[in-house]
Amino acid sequence: DWTMAEFRKTKIDEIRAQVGKSRVICGLSGGVDSAVAAVLIHEAIGEQLTCVFVDHGLMRLGEAEQVVSLFRGHYNIPLIHKDVSTLFLGGLAGVTDPEAKRKFIGKTFIDVFEAEARQIGGAEFLAQGTLYPDVIESVSFTGGPSVTIKSHHNVGGLPERMDMQLVEPLRELFKDEVRELGRELGLPDTFVGRHPFPGPGLAIRIPGEVTREACDILRKADAIYLEEIRNAGLYDAIWQAFAVLLPVRTVGVMGDGRTYDQVCALRAVTSTDGMTADIYPFDAAFLSRVATRIINEVKGINRVVYDYTSKPPGTIEWE
Ligand code: XMP
After folding, report:
1. pLDDT at residue number 60
2. What CATH code is carried by the domain that includes residue 164?
3. pTM of the model
4. 311 in a structural domain
5. What is the CB < 6 Å shell around ligand 1?
6. ipTM of the complex
7. Is residue 271 domain-shared with residue 126, that is, in the same domain?
8. Contact assessment for residue 144 and residue 49, using Cβ atoms and an 8 Å cutoff
9. Is 155 annotated to bind ligand?
10. What is the pLDDT of residue 141?
11. Is-contact 30 53, C-beta < 8 A?
12. Could you tell me if 84 and 206 are in contact, meaning their C-beta atoms sit under 8 angstroms apart?
């Protein structure tokens, strides 16, 4: 019978056999998958691995800091932290189409990563935290002839361009198994248990144009929502919960004044692999508490709505 401890041993042997004495670089996205892949590969080949964290500035509140302290502090894994938020936000100016956002972010991520790889003298192998659902969702949509629903930027592109071989130790795993492996590798529960976060980050949670100001507003609303979810003890019962900042202004009234601010949508779903999802049925008191806090504490938002759409027909993200 199959356990994560065995999987860990088997994969470590496989990685060593595949890589030999060569160098490997791994791009960290801030998420659980790339972190677990990196820690596993580090255990297999140690100093032959270099991690590059391309920080596009589209992360949740405090997330970049968490990744840096986990790698440098907890594991003592050398990490290059590249803060390139200006580059990303500059390039996203005027871009409103969801796939155009993904393409720009994916391409820019590759450019920055490639430049860093050259800086350190290159490597023969590229490590990625690709999961099984990433592999199938990027290829085709079941029920139709090979239609790409959303291009997941962590799959494809980079290896061909950089002429490198891939190391993808998580390719057969589903999300819950990656978490189990993460725990097996000693990653903190708070990190391993984190909800999935898309590579393009907040850019696809801001329909319309992405600006630094919009990111800042969204980060605050999202942090309040997640804090309330944690306080209510619901975090682990939910697959993914996040706020979306809509490019719509509505009229409100606060104190003696009229407000004309943006709408924030709250999303929370249950799922086992992200391929299908059901909405999380919060009680009304919880939702009104969150709405009140967001409107009172986040300047720029004066209305909060809850998204009641399952997947299918909706997708989990709004873009
Ligand atoms: P959707 O929105 O397609 O999301 O129902 C399914 C899962 O995939 C994540 N997602 C992405 N992850 N790059 C990623 O790395 C992307 O472009 C992307 N789009 C969606 C989403 O957060 C959910 O977990």
Report:
1. 95
2. 3.40.50.620
3. 0.88
4. no
5. 102, 150, 152-154, 196, 198-200, 240, 274, 311, 315-317
6. 0.99
7. no
8. no
9. no
10. 41
11. yes
12. no
